[in-house]
Amino acid sequence: MKKQIHYFLTAVLFFTRIPCPKWVDHSPEALNKSSRYFPLVGMLVGGIAALVYYGCTFIFSPEISLVLSMISSVWTTGAFHEDGFADTCDGFGGGWTKEKILTIMKDSRLGTFGVIGLLSILSLKFLSLQALSSQINIPIVLIAGHAISRFIATILLYTHEYVRDIDTSKIKPTTKQMSTTSLIIAAFFGILPLFLFQNLFVFLSIIPLVIVYAYMGHFFKKWIGGQTGDCAGALQQVAEVVFYISLLVLWKLF
């Protein structure tokens, strides 16, 4: 149990700004095992965003509350996944060979594709949540969205080889392929929040998420031969928005 707590806190330390005990470090074993708790970290981040949204609704409009909620989640993670999404947009938008794509993705500067990509996905995230706010309990949506989108990203870590050099990579937990046990644990925490909706139709949202994973996974495999941490971050961001849009469709149909 102590090891599992260590793995979880390692994931919290690596993927958020939340303070952790001093004995939690970035050891290679803990970093690689921590991937099983990515969705649980998503529940934590989503929970913070949910609390901010709920608290702000007592003072501000739903729209302002949503913006502040989104800002809180970005601050909590240090824009970790948004940065990966932007780098992926720049890399695949501006590169035509594997080497060029990876070189652009490693560049810390933000390019045109990255700016347009971030503006687009943040706008979609806000507008979809705004549309959902009149139909569903938004705090539950945020917790579930952050958790299941991170689970979808962990599937990519399980199925695709890492293609960047370990010494130069900034996403070291993804340098080794996940174990099946870790994937099962991640699946448990990723899907668990869906039960909060008390509506079985919500599980249909998994279908478009799997389609998104399959398409993006194929795309990454075709162009660079596998995945990088930036690719996983991009998949998480896309999966989160697709989950929200899927809920809009499901609530309209059912």
Word description of this protein:
It is a single chain. The chain has one domain (35-253). It is built from eleven helices and no strands. The chain has helices at 2-15, 28-33, 38-56, 62-77, 80-94, 98-106, 112-132, 138-159, 180-191, 206-224, 229-253.
Q: What structural category characterises the helix and strand content? A: mainly alpha
Please give the number of β-strands: 0
**Tally of contiguous helical segments:** 11
Number of domains: 1
Outline, from the CA principal axes? globular
Whole-angstrom Rg: 17 Å
The major sheet is characterized as: none
Low-confidence region ranges? 169-174
Strand content: under 5%
The sequence of SSEs as H and E is HHHHHHHHHHH
Mean pLDDT: 93
Instruction: State the helical fraction.
Output: over 70%
User: Terminal Cα separation, in Å?
Assistant: 42 Å
Task: List the topology elements.
Blueprint: H1 2-15, H2 28-33, H3 38-56, H4 62-77, H5 80-94, H6 98-106, H7 112-132, H8 138-159, H9 180-191, H10 206-224, H11 229-253
Helix pairs in contact: 3-4, 3-8, 3-9, 5-6, 5-7, 5-11, 7-11, 8-9, 8-10, 8-11, 10-11
Provide keyphrases for this structure:
254 residues, mainly alpha, 11 helices
A few lines on this structure:
The chain has 254 residues and is mainly alpha-helical. It contains eleven helices and no strands.
